[in-house]
Every structure is written in C-alpha cells, then in structure tokens.
Amino acid sequence: MIKVFVYGTLKPRGKYYQIYCQGKTFKEIKCWAKGRLFNLPLGYPAMSKGDHKVFGYLLYFTSLKDLKNLDKLEGYSGISNAPLNEYGREKIIVYDEFNYPLDEGWTYFMTEEKIKALNGVFLPSGIWEIKH
What is the helix, strand, coil percentage profile of the chain, to 5? Predict the structure, then answer.
C-alpha cells in the first residue's frame, strides 16, 4: 500500500487527479500536514517544511507504479536533494480534523529557495484553491 499526501493539482477535482489518481486509489481521506503552502505563478502550489497547517488528502494507492508516475509529474528523480529535482519526496505524518495523527504518507516538498526563485506567494490559510 502506497500512501501519498496531496495538496494541489492531485486533490480530487484537481487538474491532474483524473489522469494520475482516479480509479487508482482505494481510499481518500481529508487531512492536513505540517508545512508552509505557497501559490506558484505556474498554476500549481508548493509546500515547504514548516509548522503551519496545509490541508489536503491522503490517497491510498495499491501500486508502486502509481508512485513512480507521481514522481515523474512532480519532477522527482528518486534521489533526495538531486539538484535537478523540482520537488523532493519525504514521508510525513498527517493529521485528522481533530488534530490527532492519522497516518504516515509520502508528500512532495519544494525548497524555500526554489519557491522564492519562482515568486511563490505564501498561503496562510493552508488551502490551495483548485482552478480549472
């Protein structure tokens, strides 16, 4: 079982949900994770490490192939801190609506330096709105 926390275009109704997630997950739970969420002018968000709440979904996949496809979409080579990665992938704890630890899953982080270079705008609400 592969668990991935998503906070942007991979959320249900998101731009890439239908291609990468629909019909491939067997469970999807609304939750939040610790981080800092930014809107990028490229039309998608980025999360950096931090202590704010970032709201999204924990998606449960059955195939490692699905994770590899997400890695490609997110520009993650499979090698941590590789200079050409757009995002890094790490395991984190996600929390339920009552602020209790819910589960552990992978998520994609971007460095604050990269976010700054891309003119990211901090979203204090921790919610990235889906735009179609």
Answer: 15, 40, 40
Predicted confidence (pLDDT) per residue in 23-50, tens digit: 999 999 999 999 999 999 999 999 999 9
Q: How far apart are CA 120 and CA 72, in angstroms?
A: 22
**What does the alpha-carbon distance between residue 69 and residue 73 come to, in Å, rounded to a whole number?**
6
Tokens of 29: 């739970």
Q: Is the pTM value of this prediction over 0.85?
A: yes
Q: Which of 127, 115, 126, 106 is nearest to 46 (CA)?
A: 115
- Taking a C-beta distance cutoff of 8 angstroms, is the pair 114, 76 a contact? no
Q: Which two tokens mark 95?
A: 């929390």
